[in-house]
From TrEMBL:
Its EC number is 5.1.1.-. It holds the Pfam family Asp_Glu_race. InterPro entries: Asp/Glu/hydantoin_racemase (IPR015942), Asp/Glu_race (IPR001920), Asp_race (IPR004380). Belongs to the aspartate/glutamate racemases family. This is Amino acid racemase. PANTHER family: ASPARTATE-GLUTAMATE RACEMASE FAMILY, GLUTAMATE RACEMASE. Keywords: Isomerase. It comes from Mailhella massiliensis. GO terms for molecular function: amino-acid racemase activity. It comes from the Bacteria. It is an enzyme of class 5 (isomerase).
Amino acid sequence: MTVIQRFTDHLAEPRTIGIVGGLGPYAGYDLVRKIFRWTKAGVDQDHLPLMLHSFPGWIPERPAFLLGETKENPGEDIGGIMAQLAENGARVIGMPCNTAHSPRILNVALERLYATGLDVTFVSIIESAVKYMRALCPSGGRIGLMGTVATLHTRLYQDALEKAGLDPVLPDEDECALVQRAISDPAFGVKAFSDPVTSHARQILLDTARRLVEVKQVDAILLGCTEIPVAVTESRLWDTPVVDATSVLARELIRASCPERLKESPDFSSEKETL
């Protein structure tokens, strides 16, 4: 028996993780990277089986649908990708896009997934992040929320945070518009410039976070868009915890696949506090 076999034979067989990518592409890549980061592995064979299906051209704009600018529901194509993942062996599925978790999109997608008749678990980034925030602030608290205009407009996080006994605090309306530009502006946004992120996009996001801390006096900040952690990697800003929903999702996917492989560290950043 080899060393590798001795290390892994006592562990339960992991369930294959499937990731709906392309929402945007770097958000999918970032989730994969964080799954690798939080997996307890000594050799290649200890890492979990994982599939990333990134077909960005198949999926219509999520914000445009939610804001009434188009009638084409992205959930149909997202569900098709989920079904593909399931049919190829995925048994745990995650989607690194907060906006696409709107019930108007997600319910349609899950209907297509479950129509396969396969035993598949979908792990919600919204539910995972709110559960973590509740553990972080067990006595309640003010949670600064940063996300796309569509995510905030549909109250995906606000309703869930309030139900968990937490107080969601949003940037001012003009700041929300700036955050949206930092995410999606073709001249400097994270979607257009992900590697590296432009200093302009990062500065907008940091300035918004700073005002949430200094002006609105939040107890923690939740990065509720999977593009934002590509630019803001700190785990604390101005002595305030910053929670990356992508890292929370990565850990929950590992837990659903094979909990024995999940690292115990709760620190969701590879960087130290710098501001």
